[in-house]
Amino acid sequence: MKSILITGGAGFIGSHVVRRFVKRYADYHIVNLDALTYAGNLENLKDIENRPNYHFEKADIVDAAAVRKVFEKHRPDGIIHLAAESHVDRSITDPLAFVRTNVLGTVNLLDEAKALWGDNMSEKRFYHISTDEVYGSLGDTGLFTETTAYDPNSPYSASKASSDHFVRAYGETYEMPIVVTNCSNNYGPNHFPEKLIPLFINNIVNMKPLPVYGDGNYTRDWLYVIDHARAIDTVFHEGVIGETYNIGGFNEWKNIDLVKLLCNLMDSKLGRPEGTSEGLITYVKDRPGHDRRYAIDSTKIKNELGWEPSVTFEQGLAETIDWYMENEDWLRNVTSGDYQSYYEEQYDKR
Ligand SMILES: Cc1cn([C@H]2C[C@H](O)[C@@H](COP(=O)(O)OP(=O)(O)O[C@H]3O[C@H](CO)[C@@H](O)[C@H](O)[C@H]3O)O2)c(=O)[nH]c1=O
Q1: Global confidence as pTM
Q2: Residues annotated catalytic, as ranges
Q3: Is residue 207 part of a domain?
Q4: Would the ipTM clear 0.85, i.e. be above it?
Q5: What is the CA(154)–ligand 1 centre distance, in A?
Q6: Residue whose CA is closest, atom 17 of ligand 1?
Q7: Which residues pair with 117 in a beta bridge?
Q8: Would residue 282 count as lying in a domain?
Q9: What residues make up the domain containing 121?
Q10: Domain for residue 258, yes or no?
């Protein structure tokens, strides 16, 4: 039996990875290690929580002793590391939180893996999930490839770039079998409504303003989270040790075009007159250091491992909207408590 530790498994991308692994690999011992911060939610895993191959451990990766206990108990052969602070706006107001979780937390995990595996690293794997933001910002043309130089601009992307470097350093220095993927913007069910798509879905439902940063002409490449989880499964099992793979949707959208599409889809789903949601669009002060364009070339993973997106953007977005509308309780629960004050604070600042 293979023991697999998935960090951040109660979060957005992590929960889709945990669900996929628990359902597909009945003979694996799957451990979800999560600190259950504001963005982690065990509700995301209700449908699989009683499966015999699933185990949950509440621990913060910043706490090395707590991580060690989990390692000693479950003795993982493979680690899929997704736990991270992930919101760029939060990193601008509290960079240290990102250093702690994303840098220190990652090094703690690497150290515990090294201690557990010792000299016997064959058949082991440390897989770090990272972001295309480490490459910085593009002009109107070009794509990030695996050889693009790192050039992070936000405290968030600087912390992820740093953690990528530590993972690679453990590969070089201690011969740890590592693999890294850098992925574009994800969307889909269970996405915390601080990020563009779920925030705007929530605001449209509640007829609240849609705060578009700057001129709205910022470009992102969007990938359905379920396709990302499938890519992670592929890289975990078939990716070549020491390699980096870029993952993206070849699906670039300017924010304002995406927001207008979302508005139109929501109006028709909610039975509201055309143009109702677009009327909520409010241009607000820009995000400091806002990266203009991300666009990623995922040819390598397609050619070498046979992965490519399976869901079109129109299909994925429609499924996402349906999910939020069918899961009002989930949305209400995650937007209660501190959420409101966080949201208002962000909005007031602009
Ligand atoms: C929340 C919010 C965002 N935006 C803009 C900022 C960005 O250009 C775009 C998407 O913003 P966000 O949803 O915050 O995502 P972004 O900053 O691109 O980063 C995401 O995508 C990255 C991958 O590229 C991940 O590594 C990050 O964890 C993830 O948060 O929309 C707005 O115009 N208004 C908003 O209220």
Answers
A1: 0.97
A2: 132-133, 156
A3: no
A4: yes
A5: 12
A6: 88
A7: none
A8: no
A9: 2-187+223-247
A10: no
